[in-house]
Amino acid sequence: MPRIDLTLPELWDYRPELPEPSGFDAFWSRTLSEQAGYPLAVTLEPVDNGLVAVETFDLTFAGFGGDPVRAWLHLPAAALRDTERLPGVVQFQGYNGGRGLPHEHVFWALAGYAHLVMDTRGQGSGWTTGATGDPHGSGPSTPGFLTRGIGHPDAHFYRRVFVDAVRAVEVLRGHDLVDPDRVAVTGISQGGGIALAAGALADGVAAVMPDVPFLCDFRRAADLPTLDPYAEIGRYLAAHRDEVDLVFDTLAHFDGALMARRATAPALFSVAVADTICPPSTVFAAHHSYRAAKEIAVYEFNDHEGGGPFQQARQAAWLAEVLA
């Protein structure tokens, strides 16, 4: 399989100096403070998922700007008859995927967790379906989501998504059946990048599990012959030749490698050394920047599928130990 990035020994040594944009922490403090005034406005409706071991609820909460964000809440059926509080997992979706159908993402509920599967606003028309729109506008952008609102961090698409993620953690931690001190966040690709942001920005996250995370070390990703979504950056800059500094300054506000410096919870990363979508050097940049306890599972001969079911089994064992 052709590889576009560094060798594995070089990856272990790859520690780029990633400059932080001026006012990074102030930007996020202001953003979260502005959003705190919106009540969570949680609604729950039971749905028939066709399963006997998992109960599913159609959950809606108020995300960025009070916008309704959809999610599935999966609970082990036995938990509804038990008085012991459950550990929880908030799951974020890959690029242009949504929460899907009620039975699609139930692994963590089957493992005994309260499992909240958050829609990504404006997405869910790629590899699986979504039900959450994004009512906010955008300036000029290339098709995709990475350059939407690229002219200023306040307008960028991922500012809204990261706020949604923070509030999703708050929703699950506040559920009557959930132990608020044992809630983890996870996701693959874009979901991994969102998990890194939630781990840095949300209160009370107990563990972070980013799989082959997207949204890390943007300049490095843009300089390599990657596939979409990172290739969206190059296409935009090929037209907007005078905006290079502006674009990378905006994107830096959403860089998982910078978010990782604010981490406090233990993390289990995964990386695929032959990844042509999220280059392994960008994942290692986030891993090496991560300030709390961390591990990384390396899949040397895999592309963006990463560890797949092997990683899922490793996560289950690791999370049970971390939250014990």
Number of domains: 1
Which blocks of ≥5 consecutive residues have pLDDT under 50?
none
Principal-axes geometry comes out as: globular
Q: What is the CATH superfamily label?
A: Alpha/Beta hydrolase fold, catalytic domain
CATH topology: the name is: Rossmann fold
Q: What is the averaged pLDDT score?
A: 96
Kindly, what is the distance between the CA atoms of the first and last residues, rounded to a whole number of angstroms? 40 Å
- Total number of strands: 9
Helix tally? 11
Would you state the CATH class?
A: Alpha Beta
Rg calculated over all Cα atoms: 19 Å
Beta fraction? 15-25%
The helix-strand sequence is HHEEEEHEHEHEHHHHEHEH
Helix percentage? 25-40%
CATH architecture descriptor text:
3-Layer(aba) Sandwich
Enumerate the strands of the largest sheet in spatial order, edge to edge or round the barrel. 1-2-3-5-4-6-7-8-9
| Helix-strand makeup class | alpha/beta
| Sheet with the most strands, sense and barrel status | 9 strands, mixed
